[in-house]
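Q: Hi! First time doing this. I have a protein sequence and I read that you can turn it into a structure. Is that right? Here it is:
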Amino acid sequence: MASCWICPTSSEGADGMKYTEQEREILNSWPTVTEEDLVRMNDMFQHYLFFRRVNTLGLMTIDLRASCCGHRETRPVLPRTETPEHRDLLDHLRHKEVWTCPWCGRKVTVINLSKAGKRKSLAQRELTVLLHTRGDALYADALALRKDYEDDASLTARPTAWCSSGYRFTRGEVMQVDHQWDYQNPYITYERDKLGRRKLVQEPFKLGCISYYQHESYSIANRDALEVHPFFRYCGFFHHWQYRPGGARGYAFRFSDFISYLTAYAIYPRQVEMLVKSGMYRPIADLIFDRKKNAAAMCWEEPDPRKSFGLNKRELSWFMGVQPPLDVLAVRNYVHRHWGKRWDMAFCYDFYNLWGAHQTPMEVLRFLNRYHLDPDRFLRYIDGVFIQNEEYYATLFEVYRDYIDAAYQLGYCMEHSKVLWPEQLYTAHDKLTAELAARYTEPQGKRVAADGKSRKEKYEFELDGLRIIFPLTAQAIKREGKALDHCVGGHAERHIRGVLTILFLRRSEAAGVPYVTIEMNGNQIKQIHGYHNDTMPGSPKPREVHKEFLDTWLRWLRAGSKRNEDGTPKLPQRAVRKKQGVGAA
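A: Yes, that's right. Below is the predicted 3D structure, encoded as structure tokens:
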């Protein structure tokens, strides 16, 4: 079974795919799968020793077939002349017994062909990447291997192989030959000089549809080709990359990132080797999985690590030893670029950790840059506010950001120190945000009030000691949610805007005490819940307890919410069907 590429003799394939002379030469001289490769790949499959007893005119014989080494033999069963070796073989010929192949020593499972039927359950499929070297290039063939045992010839046959895609790795260039869609005219893509956002060379074995797919994992055959290659032997995939946090630590049999890793190493050899040997795995993982280059922290195109990270020798030594997140470098570079300051690496790390999980340091710095605020002055100010309030720094930043945004929108002088650095941050924040809210809500106040009045007349209802109340403010809904321990408070703003409707069901004698909350969709009840969403043991279901009241209210709603002159609801009359007896006139 050969894996050489079939290439058109002309420069253009049958489907219009054009190849250069160099590409056609590479395709036609691609390394083939050797017998040694087939033997090696055959060991990826489970091995069997098949046997069948045959009685021919009173002479008993045994047909033996070994899938591991391809041994085929027919032995007569003659008790008077059998050897100890033959007797031992006969003793182990029991269906599904695990044994050792007597000819090659591999572990096998004994299968009685008389009991195995068509043997469809024994068929097996394996995915592997086969490595070869030729000159200064490393070749990788992504092969889909299959073995079945449906006929006598296939019992000892080598696996059949179909090539999904092939890869040719050289320094500075990676070539992918994709056969998945057209085997006769493969699609060729390259990665050269640098890696972009789009992955032109991808992992093999796509699984899924054209709009969404993933890549299946695979084994790697003939690893020695990688170990002896003068260039790729230093890539560190098996000796370093597998020992990253969360890696296989040398125990993996299948991989899903080998091609991507070799692609990154072929384009950035010194950078990948330096990072993986120093244990800095995150930049490599970002590059090979997401094509994220962390441009704010490093330059992948620069082979010198000091120039790549923008650090001197002492700073690089600290960085390699501590191994902080790359955002620490991004902080340092951003401050230097926009304020001309060189913060110490340890100080940048402290600044990174200052904001916890709620804020990113880059978000803080971008805010300061937008309003031309000095970061050192900002940190001194936040330290003072922290002493006064003892809040998290992320919370203090959010309060300060809201205050500055409000001051800018209200037209305050953004160069005055008393505006930028108020003595009482929380007091100034509440004052300016209230002033801003009043400015924006005043034009909408009349419209909201008129809309609330009409909705109030539509929904409010009282009967038999129960009352439906329409809340006019968001605070009333939030208080309801807090009192009844459910999430209705999150719907307050949408209720005010008319996106949905929240109603309160109260007892008439205690109209101010929260009891049941209702969410409406037009004239239909979407959900109705009491305390803790009625999940407490023994909690009654409001829809069942007040079914008669709710049905009457809904009929009134569907009838147009009509009222009497005194404002009380005008209940619709139910239609009564009169039954007529048999023979009635």
